[in-house]
Q: What sequence folds into this?
């Protein structure tokens, strides 16, 4: 009997909160936004979601096989990347675009670096940006929502941010939609990518993640706070060309980015202080790109740029160690 | 007792493992009967092992000196019952290897050595009291077993102003200190008075975690008349670690690489205080202690007053035996305890608990890659970056590990406990610490 004892050094117990459970919780947190996007955009949205998710899982399995590594699907990270990618796609994306995105996310975004834990950039965002640059037309073909059962056909429409950028460029003034329609933006009744649309669903998911301590408040608060503050400053200076900060908050991918993409643990700093700097950088870049850049939306680029800065931030942000009162951080 | 109104103090970091104290918290201390054989190892404290001063065949009484201290940082050892010394030989030690031990066959009388004389502490000077403590072989009973008289001998340039009594017992499952505070309140407070006299200070604070409201209430009631403070502390592991306790109670941080006396504090476990009272008033050396025998692998968990040297198997037998097949035998708690090779090993001075898990209580995990979630950093009570140190340790980059302050690690295990990738973080850090210290010794 006693020759079957385990010998090990302490600790002898574990929290039980393993990587796959963390990933699963993030996927759960995305369910409200996913469900609403299917409601607003119908079956095309569902098919994009399935292709991206199953595609990512398939490519993950393929890479593991090609590299003779143990199958890593059980950790849930590939499925999560798939869901996040889908939420970053236009609802009417064709199947090949979604599949190609999944391949980029897994192969270029993740596995070339060594798989989970080693990728410097958020894989779903790498895929989105590659697609946006390579297939600008397809990736900016937005449709107005046609809720399930409404009998409406999908009609082409611009995103609020896109419309704002065009209007400001052409007329030098904000369009009407920058001043009203906030309730629609809040519920998600507007054109945009799958996951950008519903502020309320994203907030619900984000709060769940905060409550479950999967993410800490630092990145979302710093990110969103920075956008609001800088957005408010511009708006206060000249409200006819710069939108209300609320418009920044509710349209585009800010909430999706701040709660679900920027908080990707692998690609964001590990310390509280580092996360605040990271969130601030994301917010600053987002507003600058939205107001002055070539693209109407800047969240993806902002996060990717800050991903690149993460090792640098980690290098200079160390927690203050107990009993090292005189040491500099 | 309204704990909300008590202004709970704590430290930054740490976490909340399931406490497991329900197994034994309400079980009053029982005296463990005499085993067939008592095995008393010579190494039971931090410092040099004691030196045998009896021969095989010698008749000893309970409390008879059987091994003398070897130097200042060491402690004498006494027989824990009356009987005959039948062997002096290597026996399996809780550390996991055979080490020299004195084996006693009890005569069943359990008679105290009649030469042991108590004294009224009021009649003794601080130095005389300290000599009593040293002669009684008192060591830190929270588990670290540092010789108590050494802690009570700060160099002249260190001004001590606060004595902290550690009644936190933050290790899950253990309830020995909890029961002591309820059942040996008087001895603990008497020991505190003696400690104050030795240190020549006024301020004494007992720190107790808020999950022991009955102990807080009892101690508060009894301590007030003697001008001893009781501070309730937030329930969080490792609240009872010396540095975290000092931070919580005084707001002072012990500088890296120094001892608590550097910030004017001496910390003693409540069990140690009770032992000090017995040592002075009754003249009785440290020959027994309270051990929590617990865990899902034990049929009837208990808190037992155990003679030092009682084999673990005998303790299990007093608790109606094993419940199912044991998979891990742990001396101490689940966060910092030591796994045992067998139940043959004896309980020693630092044995605060015997915890037994079955296979079904211990899920096995495959370690995965670090996902940089930062949980280990948030949980570290020293605010280290465990994942960075562990990565350097795995690559044998010890200079880098030292730069990340590997030597400040207190090995509480929070990082490993919380790691979603189930990486052996604290284990890697221990490896780095050993390598760094070995290198320092050779220079």
A:
């Amino acid at each position: 009997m006693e020759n079957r004892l385990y010998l090990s050094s302490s600790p002898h117990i574990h929290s039980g909160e393993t990587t796959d459970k963390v990933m699963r919780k993030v996927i759960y947190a995305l369910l409200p936004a996913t469900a609403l996007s299917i409601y607003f955009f119908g079956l095309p949205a569902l098919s994009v979601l399935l292709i991206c998710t199953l595609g990512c899982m398939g490519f993950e399995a393929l890479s593991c096989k090609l590299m003779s590594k143990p199958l890593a699907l059980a950790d849930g990270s590939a499925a999560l990347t798939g869901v996040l990618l889908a939420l970053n796609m236009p609802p009417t994306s064709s199947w090949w675009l979604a599949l190609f995105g999944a391949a980029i996310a897994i192969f270029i975004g993740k596995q070339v670096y060594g798989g989970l834990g080693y990728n410097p950039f958020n894989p779903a965002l790498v895929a989105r940006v590659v697609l946006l640059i390579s297939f600008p037309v397809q990736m900016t073909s937005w449709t107005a929502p046609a809720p399930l059962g409404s009998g409406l056909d999908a009609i082409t429409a611009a995103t609020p941010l896109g419309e704002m950028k065009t209007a400001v460029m052409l007329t030098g003034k904000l369009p009407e939609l920058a001043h009203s329609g906030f309730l629609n933006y809040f519920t998600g009744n507007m054109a945009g990518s799958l996951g950008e649309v519903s502020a309320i669903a994203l907030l619900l998911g984000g709060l769940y993640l905060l409550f479950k301590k999967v993410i800490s408040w630092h990145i979302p608060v710093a990110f969103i706070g920075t956008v609001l503050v800088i957005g408010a400053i511009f708006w206060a200076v000249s409200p006819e060309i710069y939108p209300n900060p609320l418009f920044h908050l509710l349209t585009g991918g800010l909430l999706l980015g701040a709660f679900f993409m920027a908080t990707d643990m692998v690609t964001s700093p590990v310390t509280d202080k580092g996360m605040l700097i990271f969130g601030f950088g994301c917010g600053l870049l987002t507003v600058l790109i939205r107001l002055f850049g070539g693209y109407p939306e800047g969240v993806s680029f902002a996060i990717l740029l800050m991903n690149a800065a993460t090792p640098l931030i980690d290098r200079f942000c160390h927690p203050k160690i107990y009993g090292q009162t005189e040491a500099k951080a | 007792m309204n704990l909300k109104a008590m202004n709970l103090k704590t430290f930054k970091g740490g976490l909340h493992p399931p406490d497991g104290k329900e197994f034994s918290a309400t079980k009053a201390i029982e005296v463990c009967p005499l085993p067939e054989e008592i095995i008393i190892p010579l190494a039971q404290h931090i410092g040099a092992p004691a030196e045998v001063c009896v021969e095989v065949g010698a008749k000893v009484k309970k409390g008879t000196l059987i091994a003398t201290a070897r130097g200042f940082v060491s402690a004498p050892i006494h027989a824990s019952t009356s009987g005959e010394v039948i062997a002096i030989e290597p026996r399996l030690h809780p550390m996991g290897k055979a080490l020299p031990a004195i084996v006693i066959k009890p005569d069943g009388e359990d008679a105290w050595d009649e030469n042991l004389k108590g004294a009224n502490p009021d009649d003794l000077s601080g130095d005389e009291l300290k000599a009593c403590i040293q002669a009684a072989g008192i060591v830190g009973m929270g588990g670290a077993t540092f010789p108590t008289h050494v802690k009570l001998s700060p160099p002249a340039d260190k001004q001590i102003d606060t004595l902290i009594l550690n009644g936190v017992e933050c290790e899950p499952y253990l309830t020995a200190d909890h029961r002591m505070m309820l059942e040996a309140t008087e001895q603990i407070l008497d020991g505190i008075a003696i400690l104050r006299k030795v240190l020549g200070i006024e301020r004494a604070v007992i720190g107790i975690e808020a999950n022991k409201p009955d102990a807080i209430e009892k101690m508060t009631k009894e301590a007030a008349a003697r001008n001893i403070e009781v501070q309730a502390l937030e329930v969080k592991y490792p609240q009872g670690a010396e540095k975290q306790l000092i931070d919580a109670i005084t707001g002072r941080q012990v500088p890296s690489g120094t001892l608590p006396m550097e910030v004017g504090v001496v910390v003693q476990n409540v069990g140690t205080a009770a032992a000090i009272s017995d040592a002075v008033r009754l003249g009785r050396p440290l020959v027994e202690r309270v051990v929590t025998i617990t865990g899902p692998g034990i049929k009837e968990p208990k808190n037992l007053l155990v003679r030092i040297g009682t084999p673990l198997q005998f303790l299990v037998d007093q608790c109606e035996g094993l419940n199912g097949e044991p998979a891990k035998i742990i001396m101490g708690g689940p966060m910092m305890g030591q796994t045992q090779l067998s139940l043959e090993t004896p309980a020693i001075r630092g044995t605060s608990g015997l915890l037994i898990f079955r296979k079904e209580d211990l899920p096995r995990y495959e370690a995965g890659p670090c996902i940089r979630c930062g949980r280990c950093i948030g949980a570290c009570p020293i605010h280290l970056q465990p994942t960075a140190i562990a990565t350097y340790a795995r690559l044998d980059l010890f200079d880098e590990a030292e730069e990340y302050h590997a030597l400040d690690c207190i090995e509480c295990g929070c990082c490993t406990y919380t790691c979603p990738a189930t990486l052996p973080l604290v284990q890697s850090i221990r490896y780095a610490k050993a390598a760094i210290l070995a290198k320092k010794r050779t220079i």
